Amino acid sequence: MSTTATRQASPDQPAPSRPRDRLGVIQRLLTALLVLLAVGLAVAGVNPMPLVLGFVPFAVIHGVRRYGWHAFSAYAAITLVVSFSLENLSIATGFPFGHYHYTAQGIPYLGKVPVQIGVIYVALGYVCWITASALLDGADQRLGDRTNPARRVDRVALPALAAALMASFDLGSDSAASTVGHRWIWEQGGGVFGVPWTNYAGWWLVTFLSYQGFAVILAGRHQRHRRAGAVGREPLAQAAVLYLLLGLSSIPAFLRASAGTVIDATGAAWSTHALFETLMTANLFGAVLLALLALTRLARNDLARYETSAQPPGGRAKAPGDGPARRPEGLPRLAASEKGTARCWSRRAVRRAGTRQAATWPPPRHARQ
């Protein structure tokens, strides 16, 4: 008789309580507060920069729950190093953004770049990363899955799409912050209301390099099981909603825009009303459209096909060290000489056996005829 008999709980004994996910509760509350903050800033006519800074605690909690401290810290470190290095390089040489300089006074700088710029890269960049993952059906959770045939494509597609989301946000906001707000000055002007096209190409390049480094880290480690609330549709939807709010913030800015002109560093005059109208249009058909597409895919539960395909019917996915896959009932056993001749049962053989179970046992030779 085995000494490892299964113990059954007494009917009178209360079931063990499930531990509460306090970080998950905080994450939901923080998301709701950021939504209220976005609405309040829009009504009050205040610049949405406090909303972006509010992404910092959201990114930390969300990132730690989804990836763990080590991986998220690596993401933050890579993003800070890449962003500060290339921002300072561009101020000195003009590559990759163009020639510009910051004008803020009384705030800490790292070189020629305000510290808060690096923080925005980390926080806003994380929201764009998760939103891009929602567009690609949770691709960030499959980068280290060696059984995923599309992992090599995802390792490049996810960073490229996330960088495009960052550039799309900048396309709908940079002219207002620089040409109108004078937070930084483009010394040689540019065709996008005083902003050169190289700025947007630089945003894509800098963020792509940061994301690519993070993707390499995720691809090189074994996927670990996180809390149930850290994966699935809800965490992806939270980031997509925040990205959507950023895009929608350009609507009240346009409605409050007054007629007049602004002058850039080269002396070119731009219509203020036309500037905000163009930024709103860019956001509506850029950031807002991408966010709505991500939320639509989540509402359709397109993510489920990847979650179910990673698991055999009735059980979890096979992990390293597990025993051989079980043979579907009704299919004949293989002779020793027939094992390893193929990787899966043919659908015809499964139907003949009267089962709908997905099988991973090698089929006999007669099943392939």
Domain tally: 2
Percent in helix: 40-55%
**DSSP summary, beta strand count:** 6
Overall pLDDT: 83
Beta fraction? under 5%
Give the CA-based shape.
globular
Q: What distance lies between the first and last C-alpha atoms, to the nearest angstrom?
A: 46 Å
Low-confidence stretches: 1-11, 310-325, 336-347, 354-361
Secondary structural class: mainly alpha
| Total count of helical runs of at least 4 residues | 14
Q: From the alpha-carbon coordinates, what is the Rg to the nearest angstrom?
A: 26 Å
What composes the largest sheet? 2 strands, antiparallel
Order of helices and strands: HHHHEEEHHHEHHHEEHHHH
Strand order of the largest sheet: 1-4
Helices and strands, with pairings:
Blueprint: H1 22-44, H2 49-53, H3 55-67, H4 69-93, E1 100-102, E2 109-110, E3 113-114, H5 115-135, H6 151-171, H7 174-180, E4 184-186, H8 197-219, H9 233-248, H10 250-256, E5 261-263, E6 269-271, H11 272-284, H12 287-299, H13 304-309, H14 347-352
Antiparallel strand pairs: 1-4, 2-3, 5-6
Helix pairs in contact: 1-3, 1-9, 3-4, 3-5, 4-5, 4-8, 5-6, 5-9, 5-12, 6-8, 9-12, 10-11
